Automatic annotation (TrEMBL):
Domain Integrase catalytic, residue spans: 1-171
Species of the source: Mycolicibacterium doricum
Keyword Transmembrane attached: yes
Protein name: Integrase catalytic domain-containing protein
Matching InterPro entries: Integrase_cat-core, RNaseH-like_sf, RNaseH_sf
Transmembrane segments annotated in the record for this chain: 49-69
Length: 181
């Protein structure tokens, strides 16, 4: 099963550690089949932030997806190319260890990952806007609860269940355990 991932800017938050106002980014994971989503919040868009988000997503989804479809995230893609993209060394090491393939979207091709593109705005409008958080950790706990109970913009009517319900039914066949990652 495939999962689309993308970073999106949410807004500003005062960092409890040093009192500075900092940008908060959301690394959003959207399962292609079910549209079940997970959101990881970060002050940065580094390889460490992407890997931390992946680790948390594997726990949330109950396993590792076979294929990740990222936007051309700098921590993941060293050189974008439609036929032969070059991945960063750290990402190759992590993907090999975790056991998934990476199939990046083409540059400036939002149609390659449509499920996650609209989700960035959805998360900003329906989770972030109007909330006041005192720390990134508090916001992360809130977004994890929100993801677990979220009413998605496109319920799976033809499947007679929510994206989370579809995902739970398909998880055992589509993901492999996160193990000791």
């Amino acid at each position: 099963m495939e999962c689309q991932i993308d970073f999106g800017y949410l807004g500003m938050l005062t960092d409890a550690a040093d009192g500075r106002r900092r940008k908060v980014h959301a690394l959003i994971f959207t399962a292609v089949y079910s549209r079940h989503m997970f959101v990881w919040l970060s002050y940065s868009q580094t390889l460490a932030a992407v890997i931390a988000g992946c680790q948390a997503a594997w726990g949330f989804f109950g396993g590792v997806f076979a294929v990740l479809i990222p936007d051309n995230l700098k921590p993941v893609i060293a050189a974008a190319d439609a036929v032969n993209p070059q991945f960063t060394r750290g990402w190759l090491d992590y993907a090999g260890h975790a056991g998934f393939l990476t199939d990046p979207a083409r540059v400036r091709s939002p149609k390659d990952k449509p499920r996650v593109e609209r989700t960035v705005q959805y998360v900003r409008r329906n989770f972030w806007d109007g909330e006041t958080f005192t720390s990134l950790e508090q916001a992360q706990q809130a977004v994890m609860t929100w993801c677990a109970h979220c009413r998605y913009p496109h319920p799976r009517h033809h499947l007679r269940t929510s994206p989370g319900g579809v995902h739970r039914r398909r998880t055992t066949d589509a993901t492999h355990g996160a193990g000791d990652l």
